Structure formats: structure tokens, C-alpha cells
Amino acid sequence: MQKGRLTFSNYVLAFGLLFLYLPMVLLIIYSFNESKLVTVWAGFSIKWYMELFSDRQLIAAVWMSLRIAFMSACMAVVLGTMAAYIMVRFGRFKGKTAFSSMITAPLVMPDVITGLSLLLLFVAMSQAFGWPAERGMMTIWIAHVTFCTAYVAVVVSSRLKEMDISLVEAAMDLGASPLKTFFLITVPVIAPALLSGWLIAFTLSLDDLVIASFVSGPSATTLPMVVFSSVRLGVSPKINALATLIILIVSLVAFMAWWFARKAELKQRQQL
Amino acid sequence: MSFNINKHNLLRWIPSGRSFIVGIPYSWLLVFFLVPFIIVLKISLSEAETAIPPYSDVFQYVDETVKIILNLGNYLFLLEDDLYLAAYISSLKIAFFSAVFCLLLGYPMAYAMAQASDKWKAILLLSILLPSWTSFLIRVYAWIGILKNNGLINNLLMWLGIIDNPLPMLNTNFAVYVGVVYTYLPFMVLPIYAILTKLDNSLLEASADLGAKPWQTFLRVTLPLSKNGIIAGSMLVFIPVVGEFVIPELLGGPESLMIGKVLWQEFFNNRDWPIAAALAMVMLVILIIPITLFHKYQAKEQES
């Protein structure tokens, strides 16, 4: 009977994975479709990819998104690591409950609320101090850092908790300053978590439509905003081609990150 | 922890360094997370105006006195118009059933993953994570081509001769459920898996030794011990889905009225910022209980 239940959950797992992957596989197949009608197969073709690469507006949006995502991920890793360190190592301090609430709330907060509230903040700020004068890259960056920090903090704090504290104590006993101990001992140990935190923040920023739509101005259009407006106009094979590229690139990067993180972890386990 | 700090007079540096390190992320979150909600509250109490920005000022300085004019009209308007109430109820309903469907599908998946060998665990975990890293928008978009009247499911069913006329699936609540379960499933699987994989197997063996049938062990040992994972997963699905905009906009129809979509329209189409702010405020009040529940789970995780 133990076996019977096991197969049931295994079946559900197989079904769930099929459910997760089938739509993406179909999208990839149909991106090579000659026909303009998305669901009628008319032979293999890469013409939609060619059309994609000649779309100036789209390529500009890709660069904008990549730049914002890169800068957001870097800042989110710095802030998120600090937040995680505070949560795990600092013990109790005044305002810790408020701090931990603010760090976990962005994980679940609906995008429309975050987007609207940040926009209203920026409008109020520019009225009060004249900054930010214009909404665009800067305001999207601030918004993305704010919600990505929460994800980085979760990833890094779970790694920090697993870390052997005696290494830190030994370094301190040997006379290293807290700062030196942090960079020479803690950072190398939690490096895989920092990398995966960075990648999560990068993909979250790259993916965000709702918050960016609220806080961006005419000067900044991100890739999801372009995709969303063209999807609204109807299904086009060009979007299939774009989707395929995104899926393949992200999968490749995610797989590589996972591979390196796993290798580093196994090596560390062997050493300890 | 012991410190050896006499040499460089670091003692004086540490407390200030400590508050400095707390100060940076703390002030970032205060300014960009907490203060915005206070501003939303303020604007929800103002009046819509045709100005830039399009709302009246709550604090007015007239004849050397500061007048605070709070306009409750936006909130009363939300009560008067059936549309908003219907949107809130429909959002809560869709979020609730989505969480239930994700749980029914996600729990067995997490269970099977936790039972797998270490090598398989790593592969399965990556397979669950990978879709949530690829674009959310594109995964929602993929379903349009599948659910359309001349889409894959209808074509297949008609080719098989099961149906003669296409089933209307796109632009219905059914499509919204499919889209939501599809995109939020990993958020349910991961916390449950995290708990199940840490579960002490000796407890299950003890239960079996004491004569419990496998389903009894499951119901009375495994399920209660995974309670926190279930709560966390359900909240990770329920809370964002209440405010969901993209899925009802792309897959839903006129019947799938959701509060996130209404807020978006009030803001971008009607340019009524105070009403949008009031909608967000009420949504936040509704979500306080589930957010507190999620925070409690996170705090417990931090302690363990």
C-alpha cells in the first residue's frame, strides 16, 4: 500500500511537469511555423526570427530591460545580503519585527499595489523636492531593487543559517575585524547563494510588467511592456519567436547557475 | 561570540558599524516600501481634479491655518457602485479556488519529489524552478494559442470527432484558473517540498511500526507536520492572485472581473487616481490577515 500511494504521487508529479512544460514546448515548435496563422502548420521557417531581429523598437526595449535588470540585481544583492545578515546574525534589536515584516511583505504584495504606491511616492517626492524630475530608468530601478531585495534576503538568509558559525568565531579569535571576517570567511561560504540571489533578482526584474508600467515614463519602455502591448493586439508568430529565445536563454543561464552552485556546494561538503 | 578587539580600538567602531549596517536596508525599505502606503492612504482621501497630478491636496494652508480636508467620498463610492464589490468578491473567489487547485496538484508533486533519491531531487527541483524563471508574461501568452477557438485543444477535439463546434475556453473564468494554476504552481510546490524533505523519516517508521496504515500515517503524521508549508504555499498563491492583472486581462473575459484589473483601468483609462488609491487601500486591508499569516510562517522559518 505504501507503494500504491507512492505511484499515485509520482503520477501527479509527471502530470504536473507535463502541464508545466507542454505549453512552452508547443510555443517553441510553432515559432518555426511558416504560416501567419499560429495554429496551422505550414512548414519549417525561421522568417519570424529574421523579422524579430529587424525590429528596432524591440531591440531598444531589450537593452533597456537588460540594463535595468543588471543594475537592480546588483543593488538588490547588496541590500538583501545586508538584510539577511541583520536577520540571522544580529539577534534582537529595536524595530526588528518591523524590519522583518518589511523584508517579507514584498514577496507576496500584489504588483498593482506596489506599482501604484511607488508611483504615488515618486509623484509626491517630485512635487516636494523636485526629484525625481522625470520617471524612467531610475524609478524602475528603485522599484525593482525594492521588491528583489526581499527574494535575495530569503535565499541568502537560508544559506547563512546553515553556515558553520565556528569559522566566524575562529577568525574573530585570531584577530580579524568583523568586516574582514565577513569578506574573507562569510562571503566565500555564501557565494553560491549570492549568485543565485543575483540571478533571481535579474530574472524578476527582466520579467516585471505591472510595476514597471506604473513607474516608468515616456523615456523608458521595457521588453515586457512591448510584449504586452503586442500580445493585446493579437497573437503573432513574432512573439512566439521572441518567447522561444527568452525561454532558451533563461533556461541555459539558469541551468548553468544551478550547475555551478551545485558543484560548489558538493565541493564544500567534501572539504568540511 | 568572542571578540579580540583591544588592539585597534575597534570597540568604538563596532556599535556604530552595526547601526550603520542596519540603517541602510532599513531606511531603503522605510522610504520605498512603508512611506508609499501612507501616501496611498493620503491620496485615497483626496478629491479627483483635472490637474497635474490629478488630485486635490489634503493639507491646505489658508489664512494662516492648516486645514486638513479628508474626503471619504472615494470609499463611499466604492460601496455605492456594485462593480467594485463584485470585483472584490470575484477576486477573492478566484484566489481561493486557485490556492485550492494548486494545493491539490502541488502537494502530491512535492510529496513525490521529497521521496525521490538525492540525485533526482536536485533534477526535479530544477525542473520546478525553471518555468518560474522564464517569463511570466510569455507563459500566460502560451495559453492563448492553446485555448483559442481555433486553438490546439479545440482543433484536437474536433479532429478526434469528440466535438463539432469549438468549445469557448479563452476569455472565460476557466482560462483564468488555468493561467493562474499554471503560473503559481511552483510557489505552492516549493515551500511544501522544503518542509517534506526535512521530515524525520523515523516518525513515519514509528507510525508504521505502531500499526498505522499508510493513509493513517499520512493523515495523522505527514499532513500535520507539513502544515506550515501548506500555509506558506497557499498564501504565496492567494495574496498575489487577489491583485492579479495580467492573467485576467489576457485570458479572462468580461465575466472575469478582478480587482487588479479594475484598479489598472481606473488608474490608466479613467485617470482617477484617488479612486485607484482607495481600491488599493481596501485591497490591502483585506489582505492584512493572510499577509500576517505568511509573515508568521517566515518568522518561524527564521527561528528554526
From TrEMBL, chain A:
Keywords on this record?
Answer: Cell membrane, Membrane, Transmembrane, Transmembrane helix, Transport
- CDD domains listed in its UniProt record: TM_PBP2
Which GO cellular component terms, listed alphabetically, does the Swiss-Prot or TrEMBL entry include?
plasma membrane
Cite the ABC transmembrane type-1 domain residue spans from the record.
62-257
Q: Is Transmembrane helix among this UniProt entry's keywords? A: yes
- Residues spanning the signal sequence: none
Membrane-protein topology: Multi-pass membrane protein
- Spell out the subcellular localization from the entry: Cell membrane
- PROSITE patterns documented for this protein: ABC_TM1
One of its GO biological process terms is: transmembrane transport
Task: Indicate yes or no for the key word Membrane.
Answer: yes
Task: Fetch the InterPro entries from UniProt.
Answer: Bact_Polyamine_Transport (IPR051789), MetI-like (IPR000515), MetI-like_sf (IPR035906)
Under the heading Pfam families, the entry gives:
BPD_transp_1 (PF00528)
- List residues traversing the bilayer: 12-32, 58-86, 107-129, 141-160, 181-204, 241-261
Q: Which family does it belong to?
A: Belongs to the binding-protein-dependent transport system permease family. CysTW subfamily.
PANTHER family, A to Z: PUTRESCINE TRANSPORT SYSTEM PERMEASE PROTEIN POTI
Name by which UniProt lists this protein: ABC transporter permease subunit
Give the species this sequence originates from: Spartinivicinus marinus
The organism's lineage is:
Bacteria, Pseudomonadati, Pseudomonadota, Gammaproteobacteria, Oceanospirillales
TrEMBL record, chain B:
What's the name of the protein?
A: ABC transporter permease subunit
Its transmembrane ranges are 20-41, 85-110, 122-144, 174-196, 230-253, 273-294
How does this chain sit within the bilayer?
Multi-pass membrane protein
What Pfam family is a match, any one? BPD_transp_1
What the record says about family reads: Belongs to the binding-protein-dependent transport system permease family. CysTW subfamily.
Query: Where in this chain does the record put each ABC transmembrane type-1 domain?
Result: 88-294
Please give the organism: Spartinivicinus marinus
Endpoints of the signal sequence: none
Q: Which GO terms describe its cellular component?
A: plasma membrane
InterPro entries listed in its UniProt record: MetI-like, MetI-like_sf
Keywords per UniProt: Cell membrane, Membrane, Transmembrane, Transmembrane helix, Transport
Compartmental location = Cell membrane
> Which GO BP terms, alphabetically?
transmembrane transport
